[in-house]
Amino acid sequence: MAFYIQLGFESHPFLKTNADEEESLQSYFVPPPYFDAIIGDSNSPNSSVVLAPRGAGKTAQRRMVEAASNASRYLAVTYDRFEFSAGQKISDITLQYHLRNLITRILISFLSYLSEWPDVSKNLSKEEKKQLTVFIHAYLGDLTGDSMQEFLNELKSLPDKFKNFWSRHVGFMESVINFLLKAYDLEKIDLPDAKQEEKRLGETYKFQLESLLELVRKIGFKSIYVLVDRPDETEKTGNDPKRTYQLIQPLMRDLELLGLSGYGFKFFLWDKIEPFFRSDARPDRVPQYELKWNRKSLKEVLSKRLLAFSRGKISTFDVLLEEPCSIDDQLCLMANGSPRNLIRLCERILAIQGDRDPNARRISITAIDQATVSHSEKICIENYGENILKDLQRVGRELFTTNFVANDILKISANGARNKITSWVNLGIVSQVGTVIIPPATRPTYLYGVVDPCVVRVMHRAIPFEEFVQDRWLPCGHCITDNLINIDLYPEGEDPVCRQCGRKLI
Fold this sequence. Notes:
Layout: H1 3-7, H2 25-28, H3 35-39, E1 48-52, H4 58-67, H5 69-72, E2 74-79, H6 95-114, H7 118-122, H8 126-140, H9 145-154, H10 160-169, H11 176-183, H12 191-201, H13 205-217, E3 223-229, H14 241-252, H15 255-258, E4 263-270, H16 274-277, E5 288-290, H17 295-309, H18 327-335, H19 339-356, H20 365-384, H21 386-395, E6 399-400, H22 402-409, H23 414-426, E7 430-436, E8 445-450, H24 453-459, H25 465-472, E9 473-475, E10 482-484
Parallel strand pairs: 1-4, 1-5, 2-3, 3-4
Antiparallel strand pairs: 6-8, 7-8, 9-10
């Protein structure tokens, strides 16, 4: 019997960390405070931008916007795949590139729904039929059944029955255009005329979007939502925030497009692009939202997930332990504001406990201890690399000054230590938490603190987890930030302060 079943779950609650792969996401989705604003009013939609770290739930939000489309009667069109032709560079990407991709996806979505509205297609005016024919020739003329399936896989909100509609009627190598012209009683356009019409269309992309909206409204939708996700996951952007923003900049800086009546452009983006986006941003016209999770909200994420996978029987991780110890708060502390990291940590705990004792029906604190170290080390290497982690382990404490790193640990110049610390700050591992005076010096010096709990855990991997948390966890009563520091590291006479708001912790 699988270990998760012995614990009381019907299926593994922590198996998947990619929201697109989670079939029951709706049952345990926790909406952030601004989620209703993202959905907005489908009668008069607006565009918006969500900025969040990786693993914070951008794609989960996008999926829930898709899920709300039927009830709110908007056509949700997902745009999360960016194809590049041979030799094409990020700098070659234009607004026309994006608009052509979007129009293709809107058109396929419309034609899919139209299959269930035969009266609409029959009652289209002669001019509307000609317009639809031109769209099909211009955007779907080269598609075959297999290439159509690729588009359908991208259109996440399109019901499966419509995806099956295409596979039933268009063979793997068959032309899509021939089927469409016959199915919707449209006239074929001669090649010279088709090329001429396509050239004309290329000059009027925004007009085409307006024309498509009118067609979409005929099948009962009020508006069209374009959901832009994952531009940082392409072969040409990867881990580069500047290149990521460069890819979508043509869309994000065109206020006329983002304000197009009847359209709502919703961007779900990596927060690292913000410095590059800042000069183009117009929050007065296109609202921006930051997705952040505190420990309390992560506990809700964990609880709803446990309930969903146990048919409402398990609401806390703590009840799974041999000796309950309010572990949920501690796991959420280690997740550092990331739902994905919370799921990964919990999966690691189950894996280690199952390996230690396949017949166990509860989780030991020893498995928790081992999992927090194993998980933290993996996260640190993924995010920062082994060399940086080794340097931080040599530092060995979560509070330090430049002189301590230079003279006592790395044996390098003050400038060399300062450069290293600056790189750690830029990576989000360390932040300045105040100034201190360390005798015999009489002038204050910067005090730095490690703010990533996974790094602190790896630094102190030999300390049992219960003791590790008890000695270092200081929640701020003012701003509720979780500080993970050993206050004994503060020089005598210096008060420990919150790394976020700077107020005294004791």
